[in-house]
Amino acid sequence: MPLRIIFCGTPEFAVPSLRHLLTQSEFQIAGVVTQPDRPRGRGHATSSSPVKEAAVAARVSVYQPEKIKSDEAFEYFNRTAPDAVVIIAYGQIIPQRLIEVPRLGWINLHGSLLPKYRGAAPIHRAIINGETRTGLTTMRIDAGLDTGPTLLKFETEIGPDENALQLYARLSEAGAPLVVDTLRGLDSGTVFAAPQDNSQASFAPPLKKEEGRIDWSLRAQQIYNRIRGLQPWPGAFTSFRGKNCLIWGRPLSKPSMVATFTDSSAAAKPGMGDILTGGGSVSVASGEGTKFQLEFVQLEGRKRITALEFANGARLTRGDRFGS
Q1: Are 130 and 222 a contacting pair, CB within 8 Å?
Q2: To 10 degrees, what angle do helices 15-22 and 164-188 make?
Q3: Residue at which a domain ends, from 200, 229, 259
């Protein structure tokens, strides 16, 4: 008899795991639980979550409680009687009385190597912090924030130019077989839970818009890490002549190559945030003597343009800088 599974999830990150479970004959997806339809996007039109769309396409019943701690939700889980609940980025805290319903527990797929990066934004924070390796962990959830005992792990390198969107997509696909292997191992008694070492824990709180504002006192590599990690939101931005602008670029490998303006300011000592041109490119002075090579700029209300188009259109002069 197949294992009865309730699948709880909301964003695109959870969809590959749901689809993979649906292809496995030893599992029966008895229901999908996801967040209610909500206004999304610029037009604020009401739309379904990616998990709901995948469930509807597969003709699986969907339950969308406003609050999962409600009595109605408790009745749903008891009535459905799952052997296990798979929960991936659902978006609400699960009460203890629900945690106790399935015999194999609530199995969570988390986007880090726990106990590192507990919290809502593990993929983004790992890149922002300059990590070179990360991974996935399956765990049994408990009443804490990603503190439950771990089950299986998947480890991978973070590419030097990989951004959060790319890593997010790659880990979401890698998570699908990890979830299946975890469920099989729990059912057969070959996978065992291991407590986390809380002394090694680090945290990944939700991103805030103001975190996207670039601090030009950081080294160029640190700025690049933030640009990569803050995709797709809030993006990395700075100010120029009183207006915000999004920027893209990378550390300049040989900072001495670009160090002057095209006018007589070559002798001026650049400050952090100063915009420098020369040799057919544009760079920005950053912390500890490093320079950040500017590739694209998007001023408020404008389209994205190349750094050279920006420099020519702005008619840069001595003293022009970002962050002023």
Answers
A1: yes
A2: 40
A3: 200
| Whether residue 237 sits in one domain with residue 216 | yes
Q: Mind listing the pLDDT tens digit for each residue in 194-219?
A: 999 999 999 999 999 999 999 999 99
Q: Which residue stretches of the chain have pLDDT < 50?
A: 257-268
Question: Which residue, 74, 142, 70, 150, is CA-closest to 110?
Answer: 150
Q: How far is CA 20 from CA 17, 24, 111, 293, 318, in A?
A: 5, 7, 18, 42, 58
* CATH assignment at residue 118: 3.40.50.170
Which secondary structure element, helix H or strand E, spans residue 296, and what is its range? strand 291-299
Question: Would you say 291 and 252 are in contact if contact means Cβ atoms under 8 Å apart?
Answer: yes
Residue 295, domain extent: 209-314
Measured distance CA(304)–CA(142) in Å, rounded:
45
Q: How many Å apart are CA 74 and CA 93, to the nearest integer? A: 14
Q: Is 113 contained in some domain? A: yes
CATH code where residue 264 lies: 3.10.25.10
Tell me, yes or no, whether 305 and 156 share the same domain: no
Q: Is 215 found in the same domain as 110? A: no
Structure token digits, residue 272: 């952090």
Residue whose tokens read 């029966």: 28
Query: pTM of the prediction?
Result: 0.93
Identify the H or E element spanning 84. strand 84-88
- Calculate helix-pair angle for 15-22, 50-57, nearest 10 degrees: 20
Q: What is the pLDDT of residues 221-243, one digit of tens each?
A: 999 999 999 999 999 999 999 99
Question: Which tokens is 190 given?
Answer: 């070959």
Q: State the pLDDT at residue 278.
A: 87
Question: 170, 200, 230 — which closes off a domain?
Answer: 200
Q: Are strands 106-110 and 150-157 parallel, antiparallel or unpaired?
A: unpaired
Q: What is the dihedral of CA 101, 137, 171, 87, to 10 degrees?
A: 10
